[in-house]
Design goal:
By secondary structure, the chain is α+β, with helices and mostly antiparallel strands. It is built from 3 helices and 4 strands. A hairpin with a 4-residue loop joins strand 2 and strand 3.
Length: 126
């Protein structure tokens, strides 16, 4: 969802289930005035939500962007969904920045991770 630099990539760690994920998949419009600033603000704002665990981002060469937000419980996800500033950004996104998007919310029941011995460690996301 954001225009991240080419920093060393590292996925959000696996957490002990259950927890929740919000998967936001989008195709953006050509009109992106104010998007980067708003996106950076949303990334800062969500970090203040108790129960926010982290966020992963990816973008395909064809322009499909995917953001996965990880939340400890449904209350944390609800707090983020209901945040007034986040709601205003969503409305602006529908008017200006997105051609289409989908949002999928799921409860994670299984989670694990792997790190190759000696692999460089990327920045943690949460």
């Amino acid at each position: 969802m954001s225009d991240h630099s080419q920093a060393l990539a590292s996925p959000v760690q696996a957490f002990e289930p259950p927890y929740y994920v919000a998967v936001f998949t989008a195709v953006r419009t050509q009109e992106q005035d104010g998007y980067s600033e708003t996106n950076a603000r949303m990334e800062d704002l969500v970090k203040d939500v108790p129960g926010f665990l982290g966020m992963d981002h990816a973008q395909t060469p064809g322009g499909l962007s995917i953001t996965v937000g990880y939340f400890r419980d449904a209350d944390a996800l609800t707090e983020w969904r209901c945040n007034a500033e986040h709601r205003a950004a969503q409305k602006r996104g529908q008017v200006e920045w997105y051609q289409r998007y989908t949002l999928h919310v799921a409860k994670v029941e299984r989670s694990h991770g792997f790190v190759r011995a000696g692999a460089p460690q990327g920045a943690t996301a949460g």
